[in-house]
Amino acid sequence: MLPHALLCLLQAALITAQTRQQLSLNSLSSFSPQSLPNPPAFSLPSSDALAVSVAVCSGDLQSSLPRFFVTNDTSVGIPGSGGGTNVFEIFLDAGLGNWTGLASNGGVLAVENAGQTSFEVGVSNTGPLHQHLNTPPLLGDTTSNGAILFSPPFAPAPNEQPTYPNYTLPLANLTPPTPPSSPNFTLILSPTSSSLAAGLQTGCKLASIQSSGNQISQTPWLRDQDGWRSQWLIGSLTSATNYTAFVIRDSTKVSGPIYLVTKSAAFSCPLVHSLPFCPSVSYAVPLSQPSNANPAYDANTLPSSVTQPLLTYMTNFTTTLLTFACGRDMYSPLQSCADCQTAYRKWLCSVSFTRCSEASPGSASSTSQTTGIPQQPLSALFPQPTNASDRNSNLSGSESPYTTLLPCLETCTAVDRACPSFIGFKCPVVRFNAATSYGVGFIDSGKDGVQGQGSAGTAQDMWGNIWCNGS
Predict the structure, then answer these.
(1) If you ran DSSP here, which 8-state letter would residue 193 be given?
(2) Does residue 303 have a cis bond before it (omega within 30 degrees)?
(3) In terms of domains, do 45 and 146 share one?
(4) What is the domain range of residue 237?
């Protein structure tokens, strides 16, 4: 017969286990100071790959945050800072943390120093429900009071290659494909002066913040081969203001931050977006302001004097390309006629839709959009006086002087690499004035064209720096 003292301890442990709140598998639970059980511990379900994630929803990084401990040994009782065998602390990164391990017989999650803090707990057997995503959001462009932003890709782009003998290529005026089912994305935009990125970076905390501006639209968009994204058109922003952006996926996964700055009040070029025939165009273009108080141009409002010549060029190029025995004869082991048409479309759209920009306040000849640090190198900017002849004569022109952000030279060389030689497509050479019409030396080296040897290595970055038009 067991000693009386040991029986009492076993009885107390049994009562605690019976009253401990059970967390279900593949569920999300929220707790406030008023709903936290006493003692603050939870029973975990059994799983061969149990993922337990936590997200702090209130407070800040300067305050004392709760500590979370998990054990996959049910004999431990309540795990805590005292340690012990099979006791693991879930360390927090900007308020978010997770633990994954074997829990064949279940386990226990306990909280210390909860105080007046609210938090979420996610339990899953398919990976942590709370995450900081590695892929950041993407900036399209800004105007003086508006912006276009994109979520990280959520679904791959279709990759259907035509085959011989029925080798057909997409029409010039593409039909938008049917978008796949999209996750629930939320954009949070706040002035950088609010120090949003210095606080808790959890979905529940960010969702409690009032986002800046007016969300005009949110639509799924297949911008490029990176895949489907959610696209936001935002208005009512403040001119010449630095903003910080986060994207929340399904309430628990956080992407960001990225940074951007709105143009000065004198900036007059409107945004152009959502063009099926030029899906990567999502930036400011030297056109007159849209009619009927439209905030930006899209495929339904863009003047036909702009779209028809471009569609004609695209049709003629495709017709010429198909004179080659595409799919039967191979001109490259790496490229196909479909790749050639895709590269040409991107180049044609980039040069047909001139991109407006302006020097940032931190540099007289730079589009750096960071705060207080002048950008190096300087962007490929080319001032255009009022009524000057634009690169595309079909554009009606801006109502005031503007500055062109030249296309990246790599957009041109991509066509040269992807297309058969009989097309005769050639790009300007670096040593013979290529920089007068293209941004040179930002992605590839301006000296010998070696990938990664450019001054920036990319067309734009997460800090809002944009060196040349790579769209």
Answers:
(1) G
(2) no
(3) no
(4) 138-436
- Overall size of the chain counted in residues: 471
> Do residue 20 and residue 43 come from a single domain?
yes
Give the domain-ending residue among 129, 157, 173.
129
Query: Residue 73 maps to which CATH number?
Result: 2.60.120.380
Report the candidate in 413, 421, 427, 426 with the shortest Cα–Cα distance to residue 331: 421
Average pLDDT over residues 41-64: 93
Q: Which residues contact 7 (CB under 8 A, 6 or more apart)?
A: none
If asked whether residues 12 and 48 sit together in one domain, one would say yes
Q: Are the CB atoms for 370 and 355 separated by under 8 Å?
A: no
The SS3 assignment for 307 reads helix
Residue 454 lies inside a defined structural domain of this protein? no
Q: List strand residue ranges (DSSP E) for 82-184, in order.
A: 87-90, 96-103, 107-112, 119-124, 131-132, 138-142, 147-150
What residues does 233 pair with on adjacent strands?
A: 148, 217
**Chain mean pLDDT for the chain:** 89
pLDDT exceeds 70 at position 384: yes
Burial degree of 428 (CB within 10 A; 0-12, 13-18, 19+):
middle
pTM: 0.90
Q: Do 289 and 389 belong to one domain?
A: yes
Q: What does the DSSP assignment read for 402-461? A: EEEEPBBHHHHHHHHHHS-GGG------TTTTGGGTSB-SSSB-TTT--BT-SSSSSSB-
Q: Closest Cα partner for 406 from 379, 439, 429, 452?
A: 439
Q: 67-96, pLDDT tens digit by residue? A: 999 999 988 889 999 888 899 999 999 999
Q: What are the tens digits of pLDDT across the range 216-273?
A: 999 999 999 999 999 999 999 999 999 999 999 999 999 999 999 999 999 999 999 9
Find out whether 443 and 461 touch, Cβ atoms under 8 Å. Answer: no
DSSP string, 320-372: HHTTS-BTTB-S-SS--HHHHHHHHHHHHHHHHSPEEE---TT-TT----SSS
